[in-house]
DNA sequence: GCAATGCTTCGGCCGGTTCCGAAGCATCCC
DNA sequence: GGGATGCTTCGGAACCGGCCGAAGCATTGC
């Protein structure tokens, strides 16, 4: 039974607090340096170096040298999805474990409002967008499958996106991604990625330094309301 | 940051060879006793007891007492999916790690041919069924989303299944589940579960003692060919 | 060349986890 | 009741894995 030991290896890789923090930090798709990841994990660079070597050997992370820096990123979207899946499990487990509401800090508040999830939008904003689009039958999302309706293609086209023209590779066009803070699905897949990119380009949202949280700009407030009938915040 | 530590906890839970073996053994949805799981993990009962206590505390496993036995099963289909996802990662990692083909034993051969995956069929048989149904446009599967076409409902109806009448709860009707041996999707969700159940009822397949592998009976050979145009084996 | 920066490797310490033998409950069977 | 059987708890031994200080390599900048 060669496979089961492999399962334990993957688990052990993620089952360390330091490495888990690093992976979570990489979840938005950016590439970070070893030092940055060391800070995220709360360990010294030499410890982080060891962790990153293991993550790389386990093919969860890939490195890219650039001068004297080494940028680390998740090896694939599949890895990101696996980690998101595990975080959902963790959230469910928490919910069952302690019935009392989870204490949240101000930093969590921003994350809960709107954040990136690898390459698409999550948090209340992401869920609201998915809800609004489903409401108008632009997309249909089931617990873990999704599609874009003809009306949806039309809509996205006027929004400036051509879902069929985009390079897809092996990626799925449209799929739900369960939100660990909202516990409801938001929009992922090629469409989810395109929408987020477009929102950045339009200046509707911008990244908050040092976190995966994003802020909605004034023009975003107006745009989300006008185009998606969504009132962020 | 309460969530990231939770991620590490889940990982650590799976990151022990003994516990990983237990979880893999439970992957077909059956409930097993502590002793059986101890054998699977290759440890003594008292060690297994400790592991199972942790898995239960982590809400990956639930127990059910029945006389002097305690039956353990995966806590939910979500847990099963998470573990399958991780095994896929492990398989991909393996593939990249050593280019040489993986050595397989005779036991693996049976598993690769046809096996249960929690509550649906996997292995070459599962993939072949999914392929055949997609070919005739009875279902449509994308990398991680799926649906049953009207023709599919008709087809399943003549096969003795009413997908809409079945109790669904929050489960998705139809979704792909990437096969770790074939590296191609097979059919999961309510439809996948119904089809497997029907095949058992028709006597087309039967469980092989002590494994998740299933054997195709002679009538199954005939049935799969006639109904699905699939030639197992 | 020299110093500074980013990262890795080495070595030893330390804490947590796993493991099993022995003993203790609980349940079933006769 | 008495004796299996199934499982858990307790205790201590062994082991692994993370962690950091010190030192070493690579790259950049002056």
Supply the key terms:
Arc Repressor Mutant, subunit A, DNA-binding, homodimer, globular, 10 helices, 233 residues, 51% helix, 2 domains, two-stranded antiparallel sheet, three-stranded antiparallel sheet, alpha+beta
- Strand fraction band of chain A? 15-25%
Count of DSSP H/I helices of chain A:
10
Major β-sheet of chain A, in short?
Answer: 3 strands, antiparallel
**Strand count of chain A:** 11
Helix content of chain A: 40-55%
Distance between the termini of chain A: 51 Å
What is the overall shape of chain A?
globular
Helix and strand succession of chain A? HHEHHEEHHEEHEEHEEHEEH
**Spatial strand order of the main sheet of chain A:** 1-3-2
Unreliable segments of chain A (pLDDT under 50, ≥5 consecutive)?
94-105
Radius of gyration computed on alpha carbons of chain A: 19 Å
When the domains of chain A are counted, the total is 2
Most extensive contact: A-B, 60 and 59 residues
- The whole-number mean of residue pLDDT values of chain A reads 81
Oligomer: homodimer
- What structural category arises from helix and sheet content of chain A? alpha+beta
